[in-house]
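Appendix B, example 12.
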Amino acid sequence: MHQPLPFHDKAMDAALAMQAAHRQGKAWQMHDKMFENNQALSRDDLTRYAQEIGLDATRFKRDMGDAKLKEEVLADQKVGNSVGASGTPTFFINGKKLVGAQPVEQFTSVIDEELKRANDLLKSGTPAEKLYDKLSGG
């Protein structure tokens, strides 16, 4: 989900570029191009990347200005804010929040703990289809 942070003056354009590229089936190619060039994210840069990955540049520019596209990004942002994801990246593992770039060991620790909890619940009779609700507090 998109969560363009207000202190990053290029974040909204980067989110719009990702969505505009998605409309042409190349969101992840745009993602990779933007990450390779994360210090160069002006509208002109983004249009150049669109051309480099084979997008129709005219359509890309039109989509970048489409109010519906911005509404999609703002809807993502609203959902993120509603669950407390006010920074990026934010991850949720069965409702447990991890914020920021974390080492793989941190993920492994939380996932292993959650797998143990899940197995304990299964052994105590919790049906598999109820696990997520139990584990996430839902």
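The chain has a mean pLDDT of 94. Residues 11-82 form one domain.
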